[in-house]
Amino acid sequence: MTHEVDPRLLRGFVAVAEELHFTRAAARLYVAQQALSRDVRRLERELGADLFVRTTRQVELTAAGERLLPLARQVLRACEDLAAAFGAGGGDGGDAVRALLVDLNTDGPSTGRSVLERGRELAPGCELMARFESGLTHAAGEIVAGRLDVAFGHFGGLGAGLRARLERQPVRFEPLAVLLPEDHPLAAREEVPVGALAGESVYAGAGNPRTLEWTALARELFAGRGIAVAPPAPVAVGKEEFRRVMAKTRTPVLATTGFVDMPGSVKRPLVDPVPLSPVSMVWRAGLRHPGLTALRAAAEELAAAHGWLDVPDGAWLPGPLTSDRTVG
Questions:
Q1: Which residues sit opposite 61 in a β-bridge?
Q2: How far is CA 131 from the centre of its chain?
Q3: What SS3 class is residue 106?
Q4: Is the Cα dihedral 10, 13, 15, 18 positive or negative?
Q5: Is the pTM of this model over 0.70?
Q6: Which terminus of the chain has fewer CB atoms gathered within 10 Å of its CB, N or C?
C-alpha cells in the first residue's frame, strides 16, 4: 500500500459509496463511468482491499469500504478547508475576500440572475462572479468539488449523496411553460392545459447528464398523463444553437415561464394544474462568505417582494420536498 492517496480517487470512491450506483456517481462527478470504475479499481489496488461488492443489479460497500468512507470524507473536507482558507484570504493574512462563483445555468433572464444582481447591490465590495454550468446536477458536483460556490435549481431532484453535502435556501416556485413551434396546433392558445399535451413527446433534457434533476421533474409531471419524455437530442449551448435544434426536431420543450423567448416558437404557460418547479439556492455545507450572506438576503427580499414562495391553490409540485436540507 502507498503512503499517499490521490484525493481524486477518494472523491470518486465517496461518490459511488453515497450513490451506490456507478452511473449516477459518474454523472454527479461529470466523468465517464469507465474512468470512474478505473479510479475505484486503482484505489482498491493501492489500499490492498476490495471496497465494493458489485453485481449486475446492485453495488454495496464491503467492510473495508465502510471503514474507509468516514476517513475519506474527513480527508476531502480537509482539502476543501485548505482551499477555502487560502482562497479566501491569501497566505499573508490580507483582508481580500476571494470571488464567489455563482452558477446561473444560462446567460439570460432567470431567478438566479435576479438574485445575483440584487446581491451585488447589497455587497458592492464582494466579487460575485457568474458562471453558466447548465444544470444543477452538474453544478452541485462542481460545488462539492470546490470549483463552484453557489447554484440554483431543483434541489429535491438531486441524489441523496449530493444533498447530504449541500445546504440550500428555497427561493421560488417557478411556473412551468411549454415552448411550441409557431404552427403547432396548441400554439394558438393563450395557456396550455397539461392534459392537452397527452400524446405529445416533450423535450426535457433527457440524455444530458448535467440536467438529471430537470428530466426527473418532467417524468414526475408527465406520469399518468399520456405525455412522453422526448428522446435525447444534441445538447445545444447558447440561444442560437437551441433555436436551430428546436427548429430541426420540432419537439415541444418543457421550460419555465421566465425562459427566454425563442424565434420561430411561442411560449405558453401550463395550467390545469399549474405545475411549479421549486428553485433553491444551493451551496457547499459549511461555506462562509460575505457574498453568500448577501445572496441569501437578496433571495429572501425578492421572494417576499414578489411572492415567489406563494403556492396557488391546486398547483402541482414534485414531491416529497421533506427530504430537502433547509437551513435557517
A1: 52
A2: 13
A3: coil
A4: negative
A5: no
A6: C
Contact 253, 293 (CB under 8 A): no
Contacts of 232 (CB under 8 A, 6+ apart): 206, 207, 208
Q: Is the pLDDT confidence value at 196 over 80? A: yes
Do 275 and 191 meet the contact criterion of CB atoms below 8 Å apart?
no
Each residue of 282-318: pLDDT tens digit? 999 888 889 999 999 999 999 999 999 999 888 999 9
Residue 88: all three cell numbers together: 479566501
Distance CA 112, CA 153 (A): 9
How far is the CA of 33 from the CAs of 57, 220, 234, in angstroms?
A: 16, 26, 20
pLDDT band at 23 (very low <50, low <70, confident <90, very high): confident
**Residues 6 or more apart in contact with residue 39 via CB below 8 angstroms:** 8, 9, 12, 13
Local structure of residue 57 (DSSP, 8 states): S
Is residue 48 within 8 Å of 1, Cβ to Cβ? yes
